[in-house]
Amino acid sequence: MFVDARRVLLEGLIDYAGLFPPASLSMADAVAEYRSIRESPDSWIAARFIVPASRLVELASVLAPTMRRGEPTWPIAVILDGDLGSAVASTQVMSAEMGSAVQFVFAEVPLPVDIDGPDSVSKLYGFVDAVCAISPTIVPFFEIPRTPEWRTRLGAVLPMIAAASAERHRLLGAKLRTGGTTSEAFPSSAEVADFVIGCAASGVPFKATAGLHHPYHHTWHELGVQRHGFINLLVAVALADVGASRNTIIAALEVTADSGFPVGMTGISVGDVLLDVPSLQRIRTTRFPSYGSCSFDEPTDELRALGLLPKGPT
After folding, report:
1. C-alpha to C-alpha distance for 283 and 288, rounded to whole angstroms
2. Which end of the chain is flanked by fewer CB atoms within 10 Å, N or C?
3. Going from the N-terminus, what domains does the chain have, and what CATH number goes with each?
4. What residues contact 152, with CB distance under 8 A and at least 6 apart?
């Protein structure tokens, strides 16, 4: 059976984050929008609904009375904000109360700035054990604070996550923040490359969030920053997976829509390297499951305009 590389690349790629800036929708509007997305022709690109643990009660109050008979389970990515113990408890309570209406698939966990300081291993294991108590299947993604010592920090924390995953026999991942509401929130291409390479070297999957509304690298004049593209990031992950150099990965992260990558049914061409369907399947299933976006229409409309959006599954 023929498999279109574009489908492999995009299927289940976007976790919907309409509650977060700059969209900042109300809970009722975000729930309605996600439900509309799931019923749209582009639904195959959508994945989980992202919600902070501090707003789970609000989500339940909106979702429970509007669930329709036969409506598919809502896959949830919960951000464990605030006190970790309270966030975990809130997640467990909602899971019990909502039953099969929701499934907590991912948990996104901000790590403290001193995570690579004294007692770093025991600190990380404490986070791992607390989050994994939510359910036997939930996958935690740990956000590593970005500091001036970023490359050194990645070299310390990513192997710890890999070791904890092996010891606890649980899939654990990392989280990359690629933007925000200030210019300082946007990492450089070199910083993103270091993260991608570090995850590949450690065998740690990751998801990304913030600033990835557009397929390709571009200038955001409002903040005067270079904003990353999700196609660039996918290509960078695939290149790291085949052992490409840091400079090659940095260059791939900075390709704009004007030049673009030749993306076709058989794969993506990057120079003389063809990232074929098996390599793209591998990175989507084991390296980069999704990224969070507060907009669904913006990325899908741009993909369509670029001719990169094939028909979804029938």
Report:
1. 6
2. N
3. 5-305 (3.20.20.70)
4. none
8 Å CB contact between 156 and 147: no
d(CA 205, CA 137): 16
The pLDDT, as a whole number, for residue 314 is: 47
Whether the full predicted model's pTM is greater than 0.90, yes or no, is yes
Distance from first CA to last CA of the chain, Å, rounded? 14
For residue 288, what are its two tokens?
Answer: 């980069």
Q: Kindly report the CA angle at 84 between 182 and 18, in degrees rounded to 5?
A: 45
For residue 181, give the amino acid letter. Answer: T
Closest CA relative to residue 197, chosen from 229, 146, 158: 158
Q: For position 311, what pLDDT does the model report? A: 66
d(CA 5, CA 83): 42
Give me 37's structure tokens. 């997305």
Better pLDDT: 190 or 147? 190
